[in-house]
Every structure is written in C-alpha cells, then in structure tokens.
Amino acid sequence: MHRILAYPLLLLAALTLGGCGYNTLQSTDEQIKASWAEVLNQYQRRSDLVPNLVNTVKGFAQQEKDVLLGVTNARSKVGAIQATPELINDPQAFAKFQQAQGELTSALSRLLVVAENYPQLKSDANFRDLQAQLEGTENRITVARNRYIKAVQEYNVTVRSFPSNLTAMLFGFQVKPSFTVENEKEIAKPPKVDFSPANK
After folding, report:
1. pLDDT in tens, 120-179
2. In degrees rounded to 5, what are phi and psi of residue 194?
3. Which conformational region is residue 153 in: left (phi greater than 0), alpha (psi within -120 to 50 degrees), or beta?
4. For position 126, what pLDDT does the model report?
5. N or C: the chain end with fewer CB closer than 10 Å?
6. C-alpha distance from residue 126 to each of 45, 49, 58 (Å)
7. d(C-alpha 199, C-alpha 95), whole Å
C-alpha cells in the first residue's frame, strides 16, 4: 500500500523539480566543481615555481635566509592541506586553505621586494623568466578565483531563494564558502623591508 502511494508522489516530485530549482542547483554545483579545479590547478602551478625561485634567489642573496625560509615554510603549509573537491563543502577547511595560500602570497611578495635590492639577481635571465611566470600565474589565479566566486554566488542565491531553497533542503544542497577577497588583499600587501646596514 505504501509503495502504491509512493509512486504518484515520486512522479509529482519529478514533474515539479524542474520548476523548483533542482536543475539549476545541479548545473551550478557542477560549475563550482569545474571552477574549483581550475583554482587548484593555478595554485599548484604557482607552488611548482617556488623551489626554482627560492634556489635562484639563494644564489645571489644567500644572506636573506629568513625570507627564503618563510617562502619554503609557506609552501610546505600549502602542501600539507588536502585540497580535495570536498574541501569546498567544509567552511573551516576552506578557510584554512585560503589562509595558507594567502601566507604563500605574502611570502612571495617579501621575496620579490628583497630581490629589488640585488641588481645582479634582477638582471639574471633565469630569475626574470621565473618572475614573469609567477606574475602570469598570479593573474591566472585571480581569473580562476573570480570565476569560482561568481559560480558560488549564483549557486548560493539558488540555495537561499524560494522555492529552490525547499529543493535544496530536500536534496541536501548547502551554501558553499567563497574567497574573502578583502582579507586576502590585506595578507598580500607587500611588507615594508628595511635595507639599512644595521639589518644586513
């Protein structure tokens, strides 16, 4: 008897899902996954540049141990986080990931500021090439992050709006975390570096 009643209810649900945001939830969720994969791809590209960049700077500015160590440690912290697709469903894990990436951004900014004080390093072809690759990667990260932010915004609006919010509750779709752009801007500000003789 229960099964007989269940079939018409399932049919009714199937007919009404299209108008209740189910398809939009599915498509925007897929868009988020694709955008997130691209964010991770670009962050990985940046992380892969770090060892060569550090080694190149070390060859000309070995005395800048603190800065070099800071970049290496920041990269290790990034590598220690499991950047799985599920991470975008966990606000705390997402915040840790963002903080680690922000720290690496800041450490790389310090490294480039320090490099300004070494003319031989700045004129080194390998360093210039790595710097250009890093700048290009940072631009691609910005583009990928913006696409992700837009995808999450569209998805979250659907999750919160009526009547699609009822569909979201029924099928377990929840609001996803996004990048806090202002916080990362603050983290990414190049530090003030004092090159006075007392600090050498």
Report:
1. 998 999 999 999 999 999 999 999 999 999 999 999 999 999 888 888 888 899 999 998
2. -100, 115
3. alpha
4. 94
5. N
6. 17, 12, 13
7. 35
Q: What pTM was computed for the model?
A: 0.79
Residue 170 located in a structural domain: yes
Residues 6+ apart with CB under 8 A from 152: 32, 35, 176, 177, 178
Residues 87-110: what's their mean pLDDT?
93
d(CA 71, CA 108): 6
- For residue 5, being part of any structural domain is answered with no
- Sequence-separated (6 or more) residues with CB below 8 Å from residue 159: 25, 165, 168, 173, 174, 175
Express each pLDDT in 162-174 by its tens digit: 888 888 888 899 9
Domain tally for the chain? Answer: 1
CA distance 190 to 115: 13
Per-residue model confidence (pLDDT) at position 140 = 96
- Let me know if residue 8 belongs to a domain: no
Range of the domain at 65: 21-199
Structure tokens, 167: 């569909």
Is residue 65 a part of any domain in this protein?
Answer: yes
